[in-house]
Structures are given as structure tokens and as C-alpha cells.
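Problem 12. The chain below contains 250 residues. Write out its predicted structure in C-alpha cell notation.
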Amino acid sequence: MNTMTRLSVLSLSCLPLFAQAPPATPAPAPAPAAAPKEQPAQPKVLQLGQRASGDITLLDIDGKPQRAKDLMGKVTVVNFYSIQCPVQAGWDQRLAAIQKDFEAQGVVFLHIDSNESEIGREPQQAAEGQPKPYDNVRAHLAKKGLPFHVFVDHGNKVADLFGAETTPHVYVFGNDGRLVYRGLVDDDQRDKNADGRKNYLRDTLASLLKGDKVEPFATTAVGCSIKRVESADAAPRRRPRGDAGGRDGK
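Solution.
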């Protein structure tokens, strides 16, 4: 083989060495996506036609407990209450009159104060020689001559479970424990139409005591907002809407 032939063969044998691409550098793995920040779970809100949990226990301003399960078999009115709200004050005497008429027939009335501005963040205990706890609530009831049995809801836990937004905000439970009405005392906030007002609370109680079937319904509550205790990272609250099928449910 001559010199030129040997050079040609050598050159051809080297071509694949130069034709091979260098090994590819593996692409960096994508960074894992940041997990979405979890929002604090909102409490499940009691709906029309449902029963409140029998585990709910409230303490009144004397420290005496009231358990929801002890109210089964009784028509029960729950009103979220305030001693400072002028809208509540406008309904106080009418609510007291309804309570007087129906308590004698076995209806239970519970008035719940969930306002941090009125009851504080923590349960109150009286030191020896000091006034009884919640003296501001006692003084208010005594001054106005109101027969209300007031319970305290520190941390507004019961208000959250009920979806209560205002004072007043009335809830009526039948003797089977189911919620049949939620909303206004009546539609006459300023007490100017006694003969023409719709007496939602009074009429609902009368129907229940007669044994009539009451289809669950709601009206839009009007009043002062409940002054809640909320943590800095709490998710924004939304005003609950009326249940499907409720009258004037908004």
C-alpha cells in the first residue's frame, strides 16, 4: 500500500471520532412547586332543618352550664344578644313580652352574648369581696327590667357554629331539636307598625306549640355586628346566605 492510500484509510477511520457529539449534560430537575398556604378551616355552619350538636355547653353569667342535649323535647329560642347595641335595645321589650307569653307554655329562651367588647376574651371569676362577674350585663338587665337569661360565648365559638352575624339574631328549634327559623324578631325594627308587622318569632312559636308543621325558613337579620375575637391569620368571614327554599332567605 502506497503512502497516499495509507493516509486516506487513516483519515476515514478517524471520522466517527470527530462526528460523535459530546454527551449531553442532563437538564437540572425543576424545583418543586411551593405548596399552597393552607387557609384555616372555617367552622361548619348550622343549616335550616339541622340539629345543633348536643355537645354544645354554655355557661351563664353565674357560671351555671346549659347543655344543648338537655333541651331536646323543648321548643327553644336562641337569641344572640348585646347590651350595647341600639338595634337590640329597640327590640328588647317586644322580645321580653314574647318570652313572658311563651315561657309559661314551656318554651326555653337563651340569650347569648358573644361580643368580646362586652364579656372580654376570657371567662370572668369574681374575687372574694368583689362584684359578681359580668356585672355590666347584670346592671343592664336590672336597669331595663329584662327577664333574659344571658349566656357568655367567649371566642364567639357558638356564634360561628350558628352563623350568627348580628344582635339580635334569633334561632328557633322545634321540640325535635331541628332549626326551623332564623332571622328577625319581626319586621318592625322601629316599632311603628304594631298592627301591620309580621311577627316572625311569635307566630312561629304559636304554630309549633299548636303542633302545626313549620317549614324551615329564614329572614335577613338586621342589627349590630357581633364583635368577634379573630386571630391575625384568620380567613375572611363571609356573611352567610339564607338556605335554599327559605322565605326571604338572603
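Discussion. The first strand starts at residue 57 and ends at 60. Students who got a different answer should revisit the alignment rule from Section 12.3.
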